[in-house]
Amino acid sequence: MSIETGRPVLVLGIGNILYADEGFGVRCVEELHRRWSFSDDVLVMDGGTQGLYLVHFVKAARRVIVFDAIDYGEPPGTLKLVRGADVPKFTGAKKMSLHQTGFQDVLSAAELLGGELDDILLIGVQAVELEDYGGSLTAPVRARIEPALTMALDQLAEWGHPATARSTPAERLMHEGIGLAEYETGRPSAEDACRVGDRRFFN
Amino acid sequence: MATVSTPNGFSLDNAGRRVVVDPVTRIEGHMRVEVNLDSDNVIRNAVSTGTMWRGLEVILKGRDPRDAWAFTERICGVCTGTHALTSVRAVENALDIKIPENANTIRNIMQLTLQVHDHLVHFYHLHALDWVDVVSGLKADPKATSELAQSISPWPKSSPGYFRDIQARLRKFVESGQLGPFKNAYWGHPAYKLPPEANLMATAHYLEALDFQKEIVKIHTVYGGKNPHPNWLVGGVPCPINIDGTGGVGAINMERLNLVSSIIDQSIEFVNQVYIPDLIAIAGFYKDWLYGGGLSSTSLMSYGDIPERANDYGDKSLLLPRGVILNGKLDEIHEIDLGAPDQVQEFVNHSWYKYADESKGLHPWDGVTEPNYVLGPNAKGTKTRIEALDEGAKYSWIKSPRWKGHAVEVGPLARYVIGYAQNKPEFKEPVDQLLKALDVPVAALFSTLGRTAARGLECAWAAEKLRYFQDKLVKTIKAGDQSTANTAKWDPSSWPKSAKGVGFTEAPRGALGHWIRIENTKIANYQAVVPTTWNGSPRDTKGNIGAFEASLLDTPMADPEQPLEILRTLHSFDPCLACSTHVMAPDGQEVTKVTVR
């Protein structure tokens, strides 16, 4: 095994699993990887909130699928496809912190470094709840995982990379303690760990 | 209020108009500052607030302590590994687990790699833009830029043609309009002082650093098994060593060791030939901008890190300095005991939490996180739409950690000042050289630029130490020791019924501690006190202000609507905000909102 430096097709799930629907992207790739395998040209990646760590994987790719929670002002739970030049891409220099590096910055940085994408598809879901710290996906968003995976599989097939259903379990994409099932069943009860105070109060 | 003097020596006046700087992300909140300006636009009062409630106990209570690292790794997209390392150290401390020498060495390499990567990326991709006007670089003469570059460094990428190409690429992006990468900034702000050629050179290095950082993180892939979320293990490191192997999955073999070695060489070269010369060149134009010192000339703390010997976390073993400086007495370094109930304590007088007795602080092992969201009588706006905070009352979701009651600054500058005060040559000599190169006195260190300079020097230090520990690892392995984990206490049945422990590291942005209590093999309480809590804390019971608040005082602003000076100083701390990806809104949202009232 060589050090992974990127492949022609990147399927990326991004977001923070600790903030309810913000975990949508990562949970999508977790499930995709659990059920399907792909040719060596395809890299399925749990991108988390990694920002610039992801630049070289994007730069190395020609085609990218990104799963993520979005804020397009749609009704909560809406699944939305955004393609090509419509996928937002910019660098915000007025950041308060490097920790505000978003995926738009990653796309823009990959382009600055000479990366060229033939195609990019954002499969986004309008979040219902982002601020339930320690919580998991809401029911409407969870219900969008399956159609989101279908969209990705169709797109990959169209690009010439059809998926193969796994017959034996794969090595897990992420540490098992934070897999979706373990994450949800192990959550402390509201009595044990106070959940109020999650709401933001600032505008 | 009239002018108020704080016990830690600052004078506050909130009579003038209020400026609010608030970052906007998909998950609302995180951190915001409010300042009051006098009639000359000089900052006379500063209020730093965390606008987001979080507590690790909320997600970790009842879970397996051996999994805690994986959760803490998800708190933040930048501090990933350092939280994981702190977490496994806390569990090992609680259960008295000793790790093998190789595991200690590999963890040091992981942590030092993070330091090098974080400092480099922070400087070029966030902080440099506070000093470098990218757009001004379009006016530079490539030939003069080449002469400038060659006068400060032997770095080979410095020809006129190279800078001409960079300029052309830059122009293409700037002219691409709305989606241009450098669109959202205060370009043209009067506080920018570099000539166009220096701006172009720094922008070229912005791009080179962006490209090079991908090499550095490969070290995490080798020793952490994968990236972007490396694996960690209570009891050691999860990567087996198989020195004669040829590409076994995940195992460390000679080929992998050689790869790491080569990346370390490149890192040392890049830091010494690009980062440090740029730092000196840029700082040279801002020698009269010595604001932002805050607590740094008086009160500093570092837990220390990078143990030379496995399982020895004493100050003799720790290569990064350990100790506390109070009241500016550089000749007296106080010893730290993270288990002592009267040393690290968190206060909530000005935080939105409830204690039974708020006149006292609580040690993290006894930490309580019970929200109590109330606004003071002088707050403006409503609970769901605050226009101005009342700093006389509760005003932040960040608690106020104090060391024996003292507010302290943490981070690279704290580490360097403590190392300097301890007369450790590897910290003192580079500082003296830098001060000499810039022709400024030692006092210049206690400033925004001093913080920025210390980070650069530490990046060079960490790159050198990477070389040291990599060589040590190879030597140990060649001598026949291939062990990387101690699994003797892996099984929870071997644990005591109750245990408590503390793990600490020096994260790139400062002292980080995790305190854990284990009952019946599960986590009963888990408290993290993070560097940005120390630096960004609100006032405490006695009225002492924290590092962010102190550092903003007395800074003149050229244009309150464009608070470049505030961002400069806050950025110099490399603040950590809870990470979300906050992406994918259609309209390229601004990431910082400024309101002047």
TrEMBL record, chain A:
Tree of life domain: Bacteria
InterPro entries attached to this UniProt entry: Pept_A31_hyd_express, Pept_HybD-like_dom_sf, Peptidase_A31
GO molecular function, one term: enzyme activator activity
Gene Ontology biological-process entries: protein processing
Binding locations of Ni(2+): 22, 68, 99
Alphabetical keyword list: Aspartyl protease, Hydrolase, Metal-binding, Nickel, Protease
SUPFAM superfamilies per UniProt: HybD-like (SSF53163)
Record's function text: Not known. Could be involved in the processing of hydrogenase.
Family the entry assigns: Belongs to the peptidase A31 family.
Name of the protein in its database record: Hydrogenase expression/formation protein HupD
TrEMBL record, chain B:
Function: This enzyme recycles the H(2) produced by nitrogenase to increase the production of ATP and to protect nitrogenase against inhibition or damage by O(2) under carbon- or phosphate-limited conditions.
Catalytic activity: H2 + A = AH2
Keywords: Iron, Magnesium, Metal-binding, Nickel, Oxidoreductase
Entry's family note: Belongs to the [NiFe]/[NiFeSe] hydrogenase large subunit family.
Name of this protein: Uptake hydrogenase large subunit
Alphabetical list of InterPro entries matching this protein: Ni-dep_hyd_lsu, Ni-dep_hyd_lsu_Ni_BS, NiFe-Hase_large, NiFe/NiFeSe_hydrgnase_LSU
GO cellular component: plasma membrane
Membrane topology reported for the UniProt record: Peripheral membrane protein
EC number: 1.12.99.6
Annotated source species: Skermanella stibiiresistens SB22
Signal peptide boundaries: none
PROSITE patterns for the chain: NI_HGENASE_L_1 (PS00507), NI_HGENASE_L_2 (PS00508)
